[in-house]
Amino acid sequence: MSYLMERVSYLKGLTDGLEFDNSTKEAKVLLEMVSILSDFAEAIEDLDDEVGELDEYLDAVDEDLDDLEDFVYEEEEFEFDEVECPYCGEILNIDSDFFEDGECEKELVCPKCNEVFILDNDECDESEEIIE
């Protein structure tokens, strides 16, 4: 934004070189306009600096938030297996630790159709299956 200040300074130099008679109304208006332009340029430059600082601060907060999310959600990463309900076709997300207790079969109730069905553990050997 320094180019605004450079342009206003150039304009001030031009008005100084014209050696206006400060007693005329036109000269007063023109000099006041140059002064106002200078104030605007300074205010814009200040705002640009503040926006830059806020941008840096926002980047730092974003990085901290990313670190916090990694910390919080790292321990709670869940792996799901998709299972289709044999009655209505609804896709269910089942926690991969669902068969953690070593059982080969578990009953599930479909939340959509409320039908009960048996889910087999893929990790069970056929020799371990219960024969009735």
Strand content: 15-25%
Ends: how far apart? 84 Å
Structural class: alpha+beta
Report low-confidence residues grouped into runs of 5 or more. Answer: 126-132
Helix segment tally: 2
Order of strands, main sheet, comes to 1-2
The tally of domains stands at 2
Helix-residue proportion: 40-55%
Number of strands: 4
Shape: rod-shaped
Protein topology:
Layout: H1 2-17, H2 25-74, E1 80-84, E2 91-95, E3 105-109, E4 116-120
Antiparallel strand pairs: 1-2, 3-4
Entry summary:
This protein has about 130 residues and is an alpha+beta fold. It has 2 helices and 4 strands, in the order ααββββ.
Q: Would you kindly provide a written description of the structure presented here, covering whatever features stand out?
A:
- Helices cover 50% and strands 15% of the residues.
- It folds into 2 domains: 2-74; 80-128, no CATH class.
- It has 2 helices and 4 strands; from the N terminus they run ααββββ.
- The termini are far apart.
- The model is unreliable at 126-132 (pLDDT under 50).
- The protein is of the alpha+beta class.
Attribute tags:
132 residues; alpha+beta; two-stranded antiparallel ribbon; two-stranded antiparallel sheet; 2 helices; rod-shaped
